[in-house]
Write a structure and sequence with these properties.
The chain is α/β, with parallel strands linked by helices. It has helices at 17-28, 49-59, 74-84, 104-112, 130-146, 163-171, 179-186, 209-223, 226-256, 263-295, 331-341; strands spanning 2-10, 34-42, 63-68, 89-92, 117-122, 155-162, 190-195, 303-306, 309-313, 319-322. It has a 10-stranded mixed beta sheet, sandwiched between helices. Bound molecules: uridine-5'-diphosphate (UDP) and magnesium ion.
Length: 342
C-alpha cells in the first residue's frame, strides 16, 4: 500500500492542532488504498505546541513529531519535514487550516495520474491588505523579469510531492532558503489545482511585513544575479553621462572662459552619485552576505527532540536518539546522593 506523509510546520499553533488533526483525518479517510501519517515539526514554539504534539502522538499511531532546537523559520522547518518524511509522497500543509484538507483526495488522484508535484494555486487574496496584495504583485513582476526560472504565480507550499521530488529537494541544502523557487528549480511534472484560502482557524499569522520583505529579497538574490548586472550597467551609464558632461564643461571653460558656477548642479550630481554608489554597495553586500552565510556550512536546522527522544549529533552531522539523557550531577546533588548511600 502506498504511504503519504503529511508534513506540518508549526510555530505557536497550540490552539489549532487538535482541530487540524481531526479535520485532516476526516478528509484522508475518503482516500482508499493509501496509508497516511502525520509529521509535525515544532519550529521552536514558545507556547505549548510541543506538549500538544506529544499528546497527539501518544494518542494516535499515525502521528510523529520533530522538535527543532529553536525557531529556524518555516523554510527550514519544511526541510526538516522533507528530510524525515518516509512516505512514497508527502503533502505539505500549514497547521492553521488555511489550506483546505478537502483538496487532499483530488491531489492524490493527480499523483496517481502520474504527476510528481501537485501544487495548489490560491484564487483569492481577500484575506490580505491592499498594500500586501500590491507588494506581492510587484514581487512576481520583478521575479518574472529578473529570474531565469519562472516562479509559479500564487502557488505556495500547499502541495503533494512525489518521493523523487522530495529526494531532489533534500539535495538542496542552502540554509537561506526560498522554497517556492526551489520547487521550480527541481522541475519534474507539475500540476496546478486552484483553491480558496480559508481564514485562519485560530491563532494569528506570524509573518510580519519585514519578514515578507526579507523573503522577497531572498527570492530575488537566490534565483538571479541580475541586480548585480544592473549595477554594472548603471555604473557604465552614469560614467558615460559624467564623461560627456565633463567634456562639455571643459570646452565651455576653454572656449568661452565660462567662470565656474553652479553650486546646485554640483550638489545634485554629487548626491546622486553618492546614492548610486551606496545602492550598488548594498546590492553587492546582499550577495556577499549570502556567500558568507553559506560558506560557514552550518546545517539549516538542528533537531532537539524526535518523537520524545532527545537527539544528539556527532561531528559528521549524524544524529542519534537518546531516550533518557543523563542528568549531570551538580555538586549539591552529589552530596545528597552520597548521604543517601551511606
Ligand atoms: N511557521 C513555522 N515557523 C515560523 C513561522 C510559521 O513553522 O517561524 C508555520 C506556521 O505554524 C504555519 C505556517 O508556517 O503552519 C504558515 O504560517 P502563518 O500562518 O503564520 O503564515 P501565513 O499563512 O500568514 O502566510
Ligand atoms: Mg496561515
Amino acid at each position: 500500500m502506498e504511504t503519504i506523509t503529511i508534513i506540518v510546520p508549526c510555530f505557536n499553533e497550540q490552539e489549532v492542532l487538535e482541530h487540524f488533526y481531526s479535520k485532516v483525518s476526516e478528509s484522508i479517510s475518503e482516500v482508499k488504498n493509501c496509508r497516511f501519517s502525520f509529521l509535525f515539526i515544532n519550529d521552536g514554539s514558545t507556547d505549548d505546541t510541543l506538549a500538544v504534539l506529544r499528546q497527539l502522538a501518544s494518542k494516535n499511531d499515525n502521528v510523529s513529531y520533530i522538535g527543532l532546537s529553536r525557531n529556524f523559520g518555516k523554510e527550514a522547518a519544511m526541510l526538516a519535514g522533507l528530510d524525515y518524511a518516509d512516505g512514497d509522497a508527502v503533502i505539505i500543509m500549514d497547521a492553521d487550516l488555511q489550506h483546505p484538507p478537502q483538496l487532499i483526495p483530488e491531489m492524490v488522484d493527480w499523483w496517481h495520474k502520474g504527476y510528481d508535484d501537485v501544487c495548489t494555486r490560491r484564487t483569492n487574496r481577500t484575506d490580505e491588505s491592499w498594500f500586501k496584495r500590491n507588494m506581492v504583485n510587484l514581487f512576481y513582476r520583478v521575479m518574472g523579469v529578473f529570474s531565469k526560472h519562472k516562479l509559479q504565480r500564487d502557488v505556495g507550499d500547499f502541495r503533494l510531492l512525489d518521493r523523487r521530488c522530495v529526494a531532489a529537494m533534500c539535495l538542496l541544502r542552502e540554509s537561506q532558503r526560498f522554497t517556492k523557487g526551489l520547487y521550480t528549480w527541481v522541475g519534474y511534472k507539475k500540476k496546478e489545482i486552484p483553491f480558496t484560502v480559508q481564514p485562519r482557524a485560530a491563532g494569528k499569522s506570524t509573518w510580519s511585513y519585514i519578514q515578507l520583505f526579507n523573503l522577497a529579497i531572498e527570492g530575488l538574490t537566490s534565483f538571479s544575479t541580475a541586480p548585480l548586472r544592473m549595477t554594472t550597467l548603471l555604473g557604465i551609464g552614469v560614467s558615460v553621462l559624467a564623461l560627456t558632461y565633463m567634456c562639455f564643461v571643459f570646452f565651455n571653460a576653454l572656449c568661452y572662459g565660462d567662470p565656474v558656477a553652479g553650486y546646485p548642479t554640483l550638489m545634485t550630481v554629487l548626491l546622486f552619485l553618492g546614492g548610486v554608489q551606496l545602492l550598488s554597495l548594498g546590492i553587492i553586500g546582499e550577495y556577499l552576505g549570502r556567500v558568507f552565510a553559506e560558506s560557514k556550512g552550518r546545517p539549516p536546522y538542528l533537531v532537539d527532540e524526535l518523537n520524545g527522544d532527545k537527539v544528539i549529533y556527532d561531528n559528521t552531522g549524524n544524529t542519534f536518539s537518546r531516550a533518557v539523557r543523563k542528568k549531570r550531577p551538580t555538586p549539591c546533588d552529589n552530596g545528597k546522593e552520597h548521604e543517601g548511600q551511606e
